[in-house]
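Reply to thread "Modeling small-molecule complexes from scratch"

Following up on the discussion above, here's a worked example others can learn from. I took a protein sequence and the SMILES for nicotinamide-adenine-dinucleotide and predicted the complex. Inputs first:
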Amino acid sequence: MAAITYDVVVIGAGPVGENIADRVVQGGLTAAIVERELVGGECSYWACMPTKVLLRSGAALRAARQLPGAREAVTGELDVAAVLRRRDSFASDWKDDGQVSWLGQAGIRLHRGQGRISSARVVEVTGEDGTTTTLTARHAVVVATGSGALVPDLPGLRESAPWTSRAAASASTVPARLAIIGGGVVASEMATAFTGLGSSVTVLARDGVLPTAEPFVGELVTEALRDAGATVRLGAEAAAVERDADGTVRITLTDGEQVEADELLVAIGRTPNTEDLGLDAVGLKPGAWLTVDDTLRVVGEDGAPVGGGWLYAAGDVNHRVLLTHQGKYQARAVGDVIVARAEGEPVEGGRWGRHAATADERAVPQVIFTEPEVASVGLTAAAAEAAGLRIRVVDYDLSATAGSALHAEGYRGDARMVVDEDRKVIVGFTLAGPDVAELLHAATIAVAGEVPLDRLWHAVPAFPTVSEVWLRLLEAYGR
Ligand SMILES: Cc1cc2nc3c(=O)[nH]c(=O)nc-3n(C[C@H](O)[C@H](O)[C@H](O)COP(=O)(O)OP(=O)(O)OC[C@H]3O[C@@H](n4cnc5c(N)ncnc54)[C@H](O)[C@@H]3O)c2cc1C
Ligand SMILES: NC(=O)c1ccc[n+]([C@@H]2O[C@H](COP(=O)([O-])OP(=O)(O)OC[C@H]3O[C@@H](n4cnc5c(N)ncnc54)[C@H](O)[C@@H]3O)[C@@H](O)[C@H]2O)c1
């Protein structure tokens, strides 16, 4: 049994783990990273990237069809095989050689296998051949093990071999009929993608479509899915599932109705990858999300850092925000704070300090790549009210700008700005419409920078762009 000591040991080589290790090495420390599957994690092979490839060609085709002149040039249908080939290439054919070589160049040592914490600062790595390596960390162990798909305990579901997001993202054929349980981000994106690829899709959205977004978002996405030929059943709840000998999946709903499909995708949220991580060795509960303080140290039930502060958690596994870019933001904070503590430098862990992931609370951006695209940052009106803020909500029809009229015939979209009336700053911004993704960062800067509305009047949007919605919202708010 080999034993090696590093300054920092990171468990999990997803986007977050990679960034943590890189940051501490850049800060002058040594780092090892432990990975049981593919270096690059969920995002690279089964989540963000492959799913966006499945969506992108359909979006480009729709965009061309919305423009006279371009529309006439589109004479065929989507080439599904070409889309799947492009997806395979973006997933590097599910091989991680490229990312492994990046780790080498970055000076990060890779240990392949299942990582388990065995005692304070010690991680045992069990390789596929059963050999064990003991890694000891001088300064910190960081858990960046991510999350997996949550599958509910419905009668017959597991036996019916349902798809989770992994199977959908890596599908090698397109099912004729696809049923989806869930109405969240994965369900909405995959319903859009597979409808575009030619499946007849049925969405069983018990709690509605994108229910945590501003209400107009779910309405627009539902309408677009239905226009594209999908069936969206709001309030429908699955009670039992069975798969026939011929492969047909039959979902019985709580109202007794049945839905038939060739594949069933379950997309109802995530569960943390902490089941087999040795958490019990440090007094934590296996299978639970890891709670962290502002500098991302894992805390126990008493709120104090576990073991005096050598254990950190970043990315999906701490359940703050389940998004790649936000996990990587945490990675920069956690990497830098580990270096600062190791060097005996001051920790800047206060609000908006360089070692605190403050944006997780109030300034998280997200793009949902549905038709139409949804781009949001900060709080919805409902969330702001629940947080006790005195707000004013301003809405604007996104199709009413000169830029949107130019962008596409029949452009449909909406925008909402949520203003904190006590501070006169924007705390939430949501856009839904074709190609709004790239408009989001302006709003993120306004929310994270807490830019006063008075100053925003001086940020003039160029004519004729969709960004003119900023001016229209300010005019509607008044000054
Ligand atoms: C279908 C889908 C689409 C998504 N699209 C987007 C998107 O467009 N944009 C976005 O921002 N986010 C998106 N997300 C979310 C994004 O994938 C996650 O937020 C991100 O992958 C989290 O990164 P992570 O490094 O924390 O975890 P992961 O990417 O899950 O990586 C964790 C790694 O740890 C390894 N691991 C786990 N346990 C152990 C162990 N005990 N020992 C060794 N290794 C271990 C795993 O094998 C894995 O490689 C999507 C998610 C899904 C499911
Ligand atoms: N473009 C992106 O940013 C992107 C894309 C995909 C996924 N993600 C991230 O991945 C994470 C997981 O996505 P997700 O869609 O699985 O989760 P989610 O939390 O977005 O949505 C899950 C949905 O399932 C519903 N639900 C929960 N339990 C249910 C049940 N038993 N039966 C029926 N419906 C049920 C919930 O009401 C919710 O609407 C999200 O946090 C998301 O941020 C991001």
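What I'd highlight from this example: The pocket of flavin-adenine dinucleotide (ligand 1) is lined by residues 11-17, 34-37, 41-43, 47-48, 51-52, 114-115, 144-147, 165, 169, 186, 273, 277, 315-317, 322-325, 327 (CB under 6 Å). The chain has three domains: 2-45+91-148+271-359, 158-268, 372-477. Questions welcome below.
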